[in-house]
Amino acid sequence: MALAPNVYDAEPIPEAARAEIDRLLASGDLFRYTAPENAPVALLEAEFAQALGVRYALAVASCSAALFLALKALGLPREARVLIPAFTFAAVPSAVIHAGCVPVLVEVGANYRIDMADFEAKLTGDIGAVIVSHMRGHTSDMDAIMALCNARGVPVIEDAAHSLGTLWHGRKIGTIGKIGAFSFQSYKMLNAGEGGILVTDDPDVIARAVIMSGAYEHNWKKHKGPRGQNDPELAGAFARWQNRLPLYNTRISNLSAAVVRPQLPELARRVRDGLANHDYLAARLGACPWIEVPAALAPETRAPDSIQFNLVEMSDPEVRLFTAIATERGVAVQVFGLSDDNARAFWNWEFLPEAPGPLPKTEAMLMRACDTRLPVRLKRPELDFIADVLIDAADTVKGAALSYGT
Ligand SMILES: *Cc1c(COP(=O)(O)O)cnc(C)c1O
User: Fold this and answer.
1) Measuring CA to CA, how many Å separate 294 from each of 113, 275, 311?
2) Domain ranges of the chain
């Protein structure tokens, strides 16, 4: 019998990282602001900005730090209310609180995307900003979100931590809102262990974020726009904010940048393989009457490295039995709302400053939505193994129930 695939290991880091890391170790040049120019972090920012087609990028310690800086860069007043989806990672409401703001949770539907009726209802005059979390790479209706937010003058931050490579009408996710944030944590498309990056076209936003990330004194001079040093708008913005902002020191080290840079040319292949793997498995699972894989929205081209699906017509005990059988046979499945202390179940965010109010749609989804890792390096026999185990587990659970009924 085939062995269960290992879904936890990441891909090896490209060999090219080794020489650069050796060079950094030999020179001890690990701090981004030591070299007069072309530090690995600065090169990563320039390459990432170019790959995404944006003017500015700022690499930092994590995507959470990028989200925190994004909110601070917008200059929101204390206690400003920030709309976030109720289905996201606990780091997102945490970043809002860290920035001195108050998270307001919006319903998410059975397809893991923001419920637009609830979004519109909660986008009231006191909302200072919106964070759209493209959770597990599922893109909400960005056309509707941007139209509503632009009409009310509310800035949109895209939490694209887990969405690098996703397209919306062919546009790169993370470049549609005013600010985009991505993660380099090991479970994301580019792996530095830890790290994140903020992107924007707005010179004031980037200047403020750069200074607050810890570009003390005149270190901001080592940050450039698409035209190199020759960006009067950027220089003007830095001059405006010099000495006027706190330094939160959320920088990233040259070592992390040296690990990420050689992965950038791998991104297109990873996205292609991840999507092909996901769609193959989704088609197989879709043939099972107890499993539903929600479709992407029409304008969306996904870049998944995991799969989510809903169990249908199962009670809570049946859902628990399903995950136990699948996990026992080697395919780890978590149901967001049923695993203890899950960081993506909003009722576990007991640190929220305000009770989130009723969120019945999100809650119903979280109680039936399964999550399985699907590293892009998996091959067909491994995907078939996963499909067989999941379908078999569902059939076992429901088969037992059906035979009682007859
Ligand atoms: C991973 C993730 C984050 C947090 O990223 P870090 O780099 O670990 O801070 C935030 N939002 C989403 C949707 C994520 O998947």
Assistant:
1) 10, 15, 11
2) 15-265, 266-398
Q: What are phi and psi of 135, to 5 degrees?
A: -65, 130
What's the mean pLDDT in 38-62? 97
- Summarised one tens digit per residue, pLDDT across range 361-403 is 999 999 999 999 999 999 999 999 999 999 999 999 998 555 5
Compute the distance between CA of residue 87 and CA of residue 345 in angstroms, rounded to an integer: 7
Element housing 239 (H / E): helix 232-241
Under a CB-based contact definition with an 8 Å cutoff, are residues 333 and 390 in contact?
yes
DSSP bridge pairs for 197? 59, 182
> Per CATH, the architecture of 266-398 is what?
Alpha-Beta Complex (3.90)
pLDDT at 2: 66
Please report the pLDDT score of residue 264 as a whole number.
Answer: 98
Cα–ligand 1 centroid distance for 351 (angstroms): 18
> Is any ligand 1 atom within 6 A of the Cβ of residue 162?
yes
- Given CATH 3.40.50.720, say whether it is the number of domain 15-265: no
Q: How far apart are CA 211 and CA 195, in angstroms?
A: 18
**pLDDT tens-digit profile of 299-333?**
999 999 999 999 999 999 999 999 999 999 999 99
As a whole number of angstroms, the distance between CA 380 and CA 378 comes to 7
Centre a 10 Å sphere on the Cβ of residue 216 and count the other Cβ atoms it contains.
11
Pocket mutation for ligand 1, best pick of 60, 62, 63 (most atoms within 8 Å of C-beta)? 63
From the CB of 61, is ligand 1 less than 6 Å away? no
Partner residues linked to 171 by β-bridges: 168
Ligand 1 pocket, 133 CB below 6 A? yes
Residue nearest (by alpha carbon) to ligand 1 atom 5: 63
Phi, psi (5° rounding) for residue 87? -105, 100
